[in-house]
């Protein structure tokens, strides 16, 4: 049985969402056991929102759902990679393709990407 | 100033180590502020070992050091990607190139890779 070690993360484990074609890391989010089971059952990435304290179907507001093509698990069974097809072309709520749209240069964060959508339009419908 | 939100992770934030050429996700580990500063200062990936409760230069036992080529930061400043050159060809203490050497098929974990080194030889010197 594919049992993750939710006990090691106090009930929550990190998931790395990675573009299944390009390998770009899109975001990191957390799952509890319910989110894990929903993801396996539906093929759509579900997470546990730590800020809203609720189960979260990625894309439920933006329609930017993540279709899970493959799942990898690490040697300690406490971290997971979802290889996903990111619908809408963007994972980040700030409108960027990836949440990792800045790189560190010296002691500054420099934006390296252009936004794909305008968050005002997508979320304030 | 490139300030990470260590307060959000109770002092520890996750880092995704990714191969700087292939984009393969190699491992996930954690940093505290000291590990972050050591990484920036030396260009070698430092982490905080949660199991040993100490600062950890990746490769200090195995010589499989990670040279950090680029650092990305996410929209919430609470997760980091290290794009690394993995010396020794393997990040996982079990001898695999990546800690994510298994994928989930149905309700089983299936090994998809071959080990690069024998952990007995590398760690029990």
Please report the two chains with the greatest interface, counting residues with C-beta closer than 8 angstroms to the partner's C-beta: A-B, 37 and 37 residues
Biggest β-sheet description of chain A: 4 strands, mixed
Q: How many beta-strand runs of chain A?
A: 8
Order of helices and strands of chain A: EEHEEEEEEH
Classify the secondary structure makeup of chain A into a structural class: mainly beta
Low-confidence stretches of chain A: none
User: What does the average pLDDT of chain A come to?
Assistant: 94
Helix coverage percent of residues of chain A? 10-25%
Kindly describe this structure.
With 125 residues, chain A is mainly beta. Chain A is built from two helices and eight strands. The first copy, chain A, has helices at residues 33-42, 119-123; strands spanning 13-19, 25-31, 46-49, 54-57, 66-73, 80-86, 102-105, 108-111. In chain A, a hairpin with a 5-residue loop joins β1 (13-19) and β2. The longest helix of chain A is centred in the first third of the chain and has 10 residues, at 33-42. The mean pLDDT of chain A is 94. β5 (66-73) of chain A pairs antiparallel with β7 of chain B.
